[in-house]
Structures are given as C-alpha cells and as structure tokens.
Amino acid sequence: MAAKLHRNPPFRAEHLGSLLRPENLLKTREEVDKGTAQQKQLTSTEDDAVKDIVDLQIKLGFHPISDGEYRRHMFWGTFFPGMDGFEEIQNPDVDIFRMYIPDIAAFTEAGHKPGETVICTGRIKHVGSTYVDQWEYLKNLVPKDRVHECKLTLAAPNWYHLRYKEGKAYPKSVYSSDAEYFADIAKAYQTELQILYDHGLRNVQIDDPNLAYFCSEKMLAGWQEDKNNTKSAEELLDDYIKLYNDCISKRPADMHIGVHLCRGNFVGSRHFSEGGYDRIATKLFQHMNVDTYYLEYDTPRAGGFEPLKHLPKHKNVILGVITSKFPEMENLEEMKRRVYSAADYIAEGNHETQKEALQRLGVSPQCGFASHSSGNSVVRDDMIAKLRLVRELADSIWPGEP
C-alpha cells in the first residue's frame, strides 16, 4: 500500500495531459488517413507541435509537462491494440455493448453507433511499449533535472471491459473468468510500467471515466435491470480496484501514479454522466493503492467535497475546479474559497488542521482540453487563459511552490 505521501509529483498546478492540437497537425493527420500524405510528414508535424506545446507549458510555469497527447487520436492511446490478444474492429455489432454505460448510451441516444472498438480475441500478452518512443522524445525536450516531473497518461485497465455485455469482453475459450482476464491485463501493465520506468518515467496518470460511472444513478439502475450480469455493480467496482492494485503492485517506490476521474469529455465539450463521489469514496480513496486522485469538480454534476473526508493522510487530491470545456473564466477568489472548503472536509476526516490538509491538495482543469483530437469548445487563447488561471490560483494558495 502507498503509505508515504508522494509530492512533486504531484504539483500544486496541474493539467490533465491533453491540450488543443494546432490546426496543421489535425490537417496532416487527416491527410494521412486519406492517403494523401505520408506518415513521415505526420511524425515531423507532431515533433514540431510537441516542441511548441512543451515550450508553452514551461513558459506558463507548469511542472508536470506532457506532450499534449499530440500523437493520439483519443486520450486512451494505443496500449490495448498494441498487445497480442486484442483487435481493433470497425463498426462493431451494437449487441456486444451494455447500452446503459454512459458513453455508449450517449452515442446511441443521439442516433449514432460506436464506430470502432477494441476487443479481446486471444490470450493477452505485452509485446512492446507503444508509448516509449513518445516518452523518449518528450523527455529530451526538457532539462535533465526536470525529466522526473514530466507526465505520461495511460488508459484505464478496465477500459475495454465495462462497456461490453456479460460474456462479450473476451472469448470464454480463452479466459474462463474475469479473474483470469484481469490477471493478464495486470501483467501487461506491470511490464509497461517497468519499461517506461527504465526509460526514466516517474510520473504516471491513468485516465478512467469508468470509475466515475459508478457514481451515476442512471448507470446503476441499468446495471440492476440487466439480468445477464452475474455480479452487482459494487462487486465489479471491487474487482476493478483489485485490478488497479495488481497493475501497479510492482511499480518502484519513486514512481508516482495517479488516477483521473471525470464524467466524459468528448467533442463539443460533451459529458456523459453525473453523480457525486459519495457512492465510491471509501473504496476509491482507501482501497486503491494510487498516490493521487485528479478529480472533476467544475460543476454540480460532480457533487460536493464531503466525500474527501475519506482521503487518507498519505494521499493527494488535485481539484479540477476550473473547466476546460468552455471559455468563460472562473473567479479567482471563488475558486480559492472552494479549495479551502475542500481542505476543511479533508481536515475534518483526518482530525487535522486546514493548513495540514492543504499540503495534500493541488488544482487543475477538470479534464483535458482535447480528450478527442478535435478538442473542446475552446480555442488556443482560451486554453492559455485557463492554464494561467490554474497557475495563478495555485500561486495564491501555495506561493513559491511548483
């Protein structure tokens, strides 16, 4: 269990990894997809764009530098399709999906169907990191004494499980149970984390909207009505927390691992679910062996700060109190009051002072600016203004701290 408080990372001013792509990058990727441009042109464009966005983050005073996820189409990247035993399929049969899972429901209610998905077709085996080259490029853009600060985001280990109906996530001829399937997922994550660690990565953020779905009354009602499910939602949440703990069980002590929860962040700044953390707080904060929780808190759909009473003294929370979805700017003093309010709840739960609780907090936007490569309903100047506000907010509460 992570019994020691991990600091720097995380930092007082954070962002969640994805940043708006420049238009020339989006255009070049589209041309490659159409076959009118070469992959090497895209790589060159990505390289230049990553250099620029790293320079911008440093200029704005951020320490957890990312590559903006500029080499990805979606925030979850290429981890799963890069393994043996998984296959990316186009236009999947909608009958394989649990239609009440919030992102699936949102698409189908709007008259769409999932255009692609990744599904297990055989025994899962890690056969090489699809991230290590991206990481190597990023780390060489910063001073050596700042490499440990740079952040890489990874897909959630449950990402291609929750969405599928009972019996559809993997062939029964390959895995007889979730436990067997999860065991191989965990081995793959252990391997990936060790490879990245050996290449210098010390700061990992796992992005997991699925965990926030367990806060959704609508999703939970759908789960209960689904007679095919052999477990309760509570039991599956327990399984997912165990999966996380197995995935990170062999990580070195100086590798910081956090998990980011949000309720969806799709094209047009769309969210998929609502509901406070109350339902999952005890298990999330006390049973999952991560160092830091990056939590959406920009609107009432994420609920109040009361669940933070359950945060142990050796863990951090980054409060996503500034929205990345829309350009309207938050009021600095109001955001400060919100941070102090969150600290009060943490202090109450741990019988400590507000000042002590503040030592385990930081601030950020509630999610990335471009979880999908097309980005949110903001432009570059809006994003820069939001990031400046995050830095200003952090400096007003923790002056002189990164």
List keywords for this structure.
alpha/beta; 8 strands; 37% helix; two-stranded antiparallel ribbon; 402 residues; single chain; six-stranded parallel beta sheet
Commentary on this structure:
The chain has helices at 23-34, 39-59, 102-109, 132-139, 178-198, 209-213, 217-225, 233-247, 281-287, 332-350, 354-358, 380-397; strands at residues 84-90, 116-125, 152-155, 203-207, 256-261, 292-296, 316-322, 361-365. Helix 1 (23-34) packs antiparallel against helix 2 and helix 5 (178-198) packs parallel to helix 8 (233-247). Helices cover 37% and strands 12% of the residues. It starts with 22 loop residues before the first helix and ends in a 5-residue tail after the last helix. Helix 5 links the parallel strand 3 and strand 4. The chain is an alpha/beta fold and 402 residues long. It is globular, with a radius of gyration of 20 Å.
Summarize the structure.
This protein is α/β, with parallel strands linked by helices and 402 residues long. It has 12 helices and 8 strands. The chain has helices at residues 23-34, 39-59, 102-109, 132-139, 178-198, 209-213, 217-225, 233-247, 281-287, 332-350, 354-358, 380-397; strands at 84-90, 116-125, 152-155, 203-207, 256-261, 292-296, 316-322, 361-365.
* Number of strand elements: 8
List the secondary-structure elements in sequence, H or E: HHEHEHEHEHHHEHEEHHEH
Beta-strand residue fraction: 5-15%
The biggest beta sheet reads: 6 strands, parallel
Which structural class fits the helix and strand makeup?
Answer: alpha/beta
Counted by DSSP, the helix tally is 12
The residue-averaged pLDDT reads 94
| Low-confidence runs | none
Distance between the termini: 26 Å
**Major beta sheet, strand line-up:** 3-4-5-6-7-8
> What percent of residues adopt helix (DSSP H or I)?
25-40%
- Based on CA atoms alone, the radius of gyration comes out at 20 Å
Sum up the overall morphology in one term.
Answer: globular
